[in-house]
Structure prediction request, 181 residues.
Amino acid sequence: MQTKTNTKRRYRLSTFQMAIATIFAALVATVTVVTTIPIPATSGGIFNLGEAIIYVAALLFGPIVGLIAGAGAAIADIVVAPAYISTTFVIKAIEGFLVGYLIKRLNKKIKSLTLCASIAILVGGLEMVGGYFIYETYMWGYPVALVNVPFNIIQMLLGLIIAVPVIHAVLRVFPQLKNYL
Prediction:
């Protein structure tokens, strides 16, 4: 049984983690802005590769860093998709948290880091796809929301294809980061 003190410590960030989270939030915003491709058939929807950075942050440093990195995507929306700022903040923060949380849980039960990371990304990515679908259905209607679903799925899968090899490379160079898994 855990005490309140143990629970509080588990989610408290060290100075290093706070610095890493801030760097990743800025990196997510930058990559999102630089790689943005507008989706003309929607009301302001975009396709980007910022997803991969959220996944890398969450997989390497856990749920809280993933949450903060995910929230960094809202910074990019100030420039590229203003109608989505608050929605992106919530959806991407939850996505980053989920990926970071699941990799930690799965890593205790499954030996393959690739499999753990893939499952975590798929679950977190599906939260992102579903979150934007609900928001877009409410804001612009079902047809517009449906058009965005394949783009969001591709964005999630590209993020997975990029993030998994990146975390393997980073862990080869910095094996001490395995302590965060």
